[in-house]
Amino acid sequence: MTAPMLEMRNVVVDFDGFKAINDLSLSIESGSMTVVIGPNGAGKSTMCDSIIGRVRPTSGKVLFHGREIQAEAEHSIVGLGICRKFQTPGVLVALSVIDNLTIAATRDRRWWTKFGRKGEAEARSRAEEILETVGLAPRRDALAGNLSHGEKQWLEIGMVVATDAELLLLDEPTAGMGAAESTQTAEIVKALVGKHAVLVIDHDIDFVSQLGGHVVVLHQGQLLREGTLEQIRADEEVAAIYLGRA
Ligand SMILES: Nc1ncnc2c1ncn2[C@@H]1O[C@H](COP(=O)(O)OP(=O)(O)OP(=O)(O)O)[C@@H](O)[C@H]1O
């Protein structure tokens, strides 16, 4: 039997006696979409931190294609093919959209780790492709600093995609967005699935329903439920704890 692409096995993250992640086990398959929801403080960001190597599990294992990565440095985890987008966009505001994407594509993790820097022409052609994927073709030459909040988020998704990571971690990609921008974000994220596995953290249930992925509910650092959004919505314990229904 082949190992899942990513597996968290009995992971505990203990901050001075407080278990932000408490015996969490879950698997993510290649090319899949997993959406993590849960109340504030459920441990969603800490879960991402423990996958990417920003936080060390106190116990348990994180495996990527069967290889233990829980003790690896963040940059080597990125080199293996896991890349994370944070809530706050980290684009280079003085550069154009296409230049931001080209720089990110130049740092394609496979070229970075195995062959040195990718050629400028190849990186630019990859950047042009990603420009379409994230819907920013009309804003190609705009300075990143002049983009709207939503456009900056899409550019940063594009920069994560440009690394050609196998697993993309998107932490609240719709933070601060209105309904129309959230819908467009769902379309962008759905288009990434297949080529990449995507793990999305988000609070917005409308957005989660537009994504249509496998839903994981975290509560107090533990996996409360997983399934389709319909199964999650029908679950009375989840409704009481998270969706606010008695
Ligand atoms: N470095 C830390 N030291 C101590 N406690 C922490 C640390 N990081 C997170 N926590 C605590 O761990 C718990 C889980 O936090 P986390 O940010 O992972 O939750 P979350 O589900 O992402 O919440 P939110 O939806 O509000 O972003 C919270 O109670 C938080 O205060």
From TrEMBL:
<feature type="domain" description="ABC transporter">
    <location>
        <begin position="6"/>
        <end position="245"/>
    </location>
</feature>
<dbReference type="InterPro" id="IPR017781">
    <property type="entry name" value="ABC_transptr_urea_ATP-bd_UrtD"/>
</dbReference>
<protein>
    <submittedName>
        <fullName>Branched-chain amino acid transport system ATP-binding protein</fullName>
    </submittedName>
</protein>
<dbReference type="GO" id="GO:0016887">
    <property type="term" value="F:ATP hydrolysis activity"/>
</dbReference>
<dbReference type="GO" id="GO:0005886">
    <property type="term" value="C:plasma membrane"/>
</dbReference>
<dbReference type="InterPro" id="IPR027417">
    <property type="entry name" value="P-loop_NTPase"/>
</dbReference>
<keyword id="KW-0067">ATP-binding</keyword>
<dbReference type="InterPro" id="IPR003593">
    <property type="entry name" value="AAA+_ATPase"/>
</dbReference>
<dbReference type="InterPro" id="IPR003439">
    <property type="entry name" value="ABC_transporter-like_ATP-bd"/>
</dbReference>
<dbReference type="Pfam" id="PF00005">
    <property type="entry name" value="ABC_tran"/>
</dbReference>
<dbReference type="GO" id="GO:0005524">
    <property type="term" value="F:ATP binding"/>
</dbReference>
<keyword id="KW-0547">Nucleotide-binding</keyword>
<keyword id="KW-0813">Transport</keyword>
<dbReference type="InterPro" id="IPR051120">
    <property type="entry name" value="ABC_AA/LPS_Transport"/>
</dbReference>
